[in-house]
Structures are given as structure tokens and as C-alpha cells.
């Protein structure tokens, strides 16, 4: 699948962004624009649902990082939901698990995003300081 589908929904003040397909270099710019649009509209409580994302290029990861930094600057919160094992290994290898909160439970992600603030502790057994690929199997 070469296309990236971006679907959104809201639960209260939290925007859930469901990504499906592949966020390659060609798709990363539109992803970055879309995330930036939410922030410009004042939505700084985001959950990125990555369960359907098969691939994320370095440019797509950069879009995630920019959105995270902008959310924190506005006392908001961005969480990653259910990254596939290969993407989780990339996040661990690049130590981005030190930056992002990651969970596999939608209700928990929404609750944590709604609470605002900047908590960088990852959930679900993903130990952010270890960055080991074995944790993806846990």
C-alpha cells in the first residue's frame, strides 16, 4: 500500500488521528501539514493511532516529533497508539521512546491526552530508557 489515509475523530478535546497505509517521503509532507492544521486550530491534545501504519519514513517521524514539540509548548500532549512491531523497533532504536508516550489502549491514550501536561513515561511495558527491540514482543 503506497498511499496514506488520515482519518480523524474527536473524543472531547482529544483529536484521534488514525493513520493507515504508508507514510513514505512522498506522503510525509501532507501528514506534517495535517498535524500542523490541528495545532493551528488549537487542538494540542492528540492521539496518533498507528495500528494501521505499515511504514513511517524519517520525514514522517519528523512530523510526529514537530507535532509533539508544539503540543508540549501549548501544555498539550501527543501520544502514540499501537505502533506495529517494526515501527516500535524503529522508535526504540532511535530512542524516540524517550520522547513519546506509547500505549496500546485507546481509552488510556484519550484519558492521558485529555489530562494535558507533558509526561514522557511510556506505557504497556515499553521501557523508554532501554530502547530494546525485544520489548516489542512483550
List the helices and strands and how they pair.
Layout: E1 4-11, E2 14-23, H1 25-40, E3 45-56, H2 58-73, E4 77-81, H3 85-93, E5 101-103, H4 106-114
Parallel strand pairs: 2-3, 3-4, 4-5
Antiparallel strand pairs: 1-2
Helix pairs in contact: 1-2
How would you characterize this protein structure?
The chain is 36% helix and 28% strand. It has a 5-stranded mixed sheet. The chain has helices spanning 25-40, 58-73, 85-93, 106-114, and strands at residues 4-11, 14-23, 45-56, 77-81, 101-103. Residues 120-138 have low confidence and may be disordered. The protein has a single domain (4-137), classed as Transcription Regulator spoIIAA (2-Layer Sandwich). The chain is built from 4 helices and 5 strands, in the order ββαβαβαβα. The radius of gyration is 14 Å and the shape is globular. By secondary structure, the protein is of the alpha/beta class. The termini are far apart. Strand 1 and strand 2 form a beta hairpin.
Defining key terms:
single chain; 138 residues; alpha/beta; Transcription Regulator spoIIAA; 36% helix; 28% strand; globular
Structure at a glance:
With 138 residues, the chain is an alpha/beta fold. It has helices spanning 25-40, 58-73, 85-93, 106-114, and strands spanning 4-11, 14-23, 45-56, 77-81, 101-103. It has one domain (4-137): STAS domain (Transcription Regulator spoIIAA).
